[in-house]
Every structure is written in C-alpha cells, then in structure tokens.
Amino acid sequence: MVKLAPSILSADFARLAADVRRVEQAGADYLHIDVMDGHFVPNITIGPPVVAALRPESKLVFDVHLMIERPENYIDDFIQAGADLVTVHVEACRHLHRTLARIRERGVRAGVALNPATPEEALKYVLPLVDLVLVMTVNPGFGGQVFISGVVPKIERLREMLARAGAAAEIEVDGGIGTDTAPLVAAAGAGVLVAGSAVFNHGDPARAIREIRAAAGN
Ligand code: DX5
Ligand code: ZN
C-alpha cells in the first residue's frame, strides 16, 4: 500500500489550514512541506513559523523537505516547530553523516534527498542513519514541472541497494507525480508518493488522492 504525501507548495497559502484539513480528511498519510531558501534552489517558500502555525491544525506526519543550504543550522527550528520527519539534500550537506545523526538524536525521523543528477551510490555509507530516501523526479524548486522518466531506474537500484543492506528506509518520490506517473514509480519500488499540483490544482483534492492511489495499484 503506497502512502500519499500531498505537497502544500501548490495549496492556497491564504487558506492553508483549510487545505491541509481537506487532504487529511481525504486520507493523506504525510503532509509534505517544501522549504526553499533562494540559494539551494531558485525559489523561496516558507520557514519554521508556518510549520508551527499548522501543527495544532493537523495530526498528519509533517514531512519537511529542506531545499536549503546549510540545513544543519535549521534542523532544531523545524523540529521545534513540529516536524516529524526532516529531509536534507545530499548536495547541500558537507557533513551528511553528522547531519543525519543529529536529526535522529533530536528524536525525529531522518530523510535524505537526491537530485535527479545524483546517483544512489552517494548514500552507500549513510544507509544505517536513514529512515527515508527522497528521490527527486524533477529538479527541485517549483511545483508543476514535468516528470523526468530517466530517474525511474534509480528507484529500482535504490530498492535493491536497501534490500542488500537490510535497510528498512522508505523510498519517497517527489516531482511530477499524478495518475500517469504513479504506476511507474510504484512499480519501481516507491512507497511514498509526493503530489502537489496533481492534488491541489484538481477541483476535488480528495478525489485526486483516491485516483493517484488507485493508479499506483491500491
Ligand atoms: C519541488 C518540490 C515538490 C513539489 C512537487 O521542488 O520538492 O515537492 O511541490 O510538485 P508537483 O507534484 O506539482 O511536481
Ligand atoms: Zn518536495
């Protein structure tokens, strides 16, 4: 059974709590929160105060995707704000091992993200510290981009790599996920599907979630 993680990047920021409630009632599993700093990616979104404001509004797992430089400087702030899972990018971490260990030490789940150009081998020596691997199927920075199908084999290889290592990390896929691409990534081994525009730009987000789940095979 795949998990669905609607990304609030495509939600109505003026009515964020209402949009979160809608996807929670529709059976979303995680709430994917995209944090961008204008340096690691060419866009700026939200910071810890917005996460803290949403926390009392929802029981969903807060899946915080940090697309920022020096994420180690902000981990505590996002955990304090209510993150349940903090994901950092391999490409943004000079000391990835230390940063992942620190996230876990603070009592939340640790995730690590790979840009489309980054091979899964980058994770070889940190697998024991990882609860989730986020495979980007677009270049991070914006919602509504076109799915990069060339990344699908990376999901398969990552699944094999995790199995060989006896690692239990979840594989999450982010970027361009909808009813057309969900079957491809689910078949390749993804267990958590992020969907932003496909959910929030749909007239009926609850129906969009059901349709993506069905397309993924459940
Ligand atoms: C992209 C973000 C994604 C984005 C996905 O940088 O990490 O989470 O919101 O949006 P869609 O589903 O529209 O590609
Ligand atoms: Zn994301």
From TrEMBL:
<feature type="binding site">
    <location>
        <begin position="174"/>
        <end position="176"/>
    </location>
    <ligand>
        <name>substrate</name>
    </ligand>
</feature>
<keyword id="KW-0119">Carbohydrate metabolism</keyword>
<feature type="binding site">
    <location>
        <position position="65"/>
    </location>
    <ligand>
        <name>substrate</name>
    </ligand>
</feature>
<protein>
    <recommendedName>
        <fullName>Ribulose-phosphate 3-epimerase</fullName>
        <ecNumber>5.1.3.1</ecNumber>
    </recommendedName>
</protein>
<feature type="binding site">
    <location>
        <position position="174"/>
    </location>
    <ligand>
        <name>a divalent metal cation</name>
    </ligand>
</feature>
<dbReference type="GO" id="GO:0019323">
    <property type="term" value="P:pentose catabolic process"/>
</dbReference>
<dbReference type="GO" id="GO:0046872">
    <property type="term" value="F:metal ion binding"/>
</dbReference>
<keyword id="KW-0464">Manganese</keyword>
<feature type="binding site">
    <location>
        <position position="32"/>
    </location>
    <ligand>
        <name>a divalent metal cation</name>
    </ligand>
</feature>
<dbReference type="InterPro" id="IPR013785">
    <property type="entry name" value="Aldolase_TIM"/>
</dbReference>
<feature type="binding site">
    <location>
        <position position="176"/>
    </location>
    <ligand>
        <name>substrate</name>
    </ligand>
</feature>
<dbReference type="InterPro" id="IPR011060">
    <property type="entry name" value="RibuloseP-bd_barrel"/>
</dbReference>
<dbReference type="GO" id="GO:0005737">
    <property type="term" value="C:cytoplasm"/>
</dbReference>
<feature type="binding site">
    <location>
        <begin position="141"/>
        <end position="144"/>
    </location>
    <ligand>
        <name>substrate</name>
    </ligand>
</feature>
<keyword id="KW-0413">Isomerase</keyword>
<comment type="similarity">
    <text>Belongs to the ribulose-phosphate 3-epimerase family.</text>
</comment>
<dbReference type="GO" id="GO:0004750">
    <property type="term" value="F:D-ribulose-phosphate 3-epimerase activity"/>
</dbReference>
<keyword id="KW-0170">Cobalt</keyword>
<dbReference type="Pfam" id="PF00834">
    <property type="entry name" value="Ribul_P_3_epim"/>
</dbReference>
<comment type="function">
    <text>Catalyzes the reversible epimerization of D-ribulose 5-phosphate to D-xylulose 5-phosphate.</text>
</comment>
<dbReference type="GO" id="GO:0006098">
    <property type="term" value="P:pentose-phosphate shunt"/>
</dbReference>
<dbReference type="InterPro" id="IPR026019">
    <property type="entry name" value="Ribul_P_3_epim"/>
</dbReference>
<dbReference type="InterPro" id="IPR000056">
    <property type="entry name" value="Ribul_P_3_epim-like"/>
</dbReference>
<feature type="binding site">
    <location>
        <position position="65"/>
    </location>
    <ligand>
        <name>a divalent metal cation</name>
    </ligand>
</feature>
<feature type="active site" description="Proton acceptor">
    <location>
        <position position="34"/>
    </location>
</feature>
<feature type="active site" description="Proton donor">
    <location>
        <position position="174"/>
    </location>
</feature>
<feature type="binding site">
    <location>
        <position position="7"/>
    </location>
    <ligand>
        <name>substrate</name>
    </ligand>
</feature>
<keyword id="KW-0862">Zinc</keyword>
<feature type="binding site">
    <location>
        <position position="34"/>
    </location>
    <ligand>
        <name>a divalent metal cation</name>
    </ligand>
</feature>
<keyword id="KW-0479">Metal-binding</keyword>
<feature type="binding site">
    <location>
        <begin position="196"/>
        <end position="197"/>
    </location>
    <ligand>
        <name>substrate</name>
    </ligand>
</feature>
<comment type="pathway">
    <text>Carbohydrate degradation.</text>
</comment>
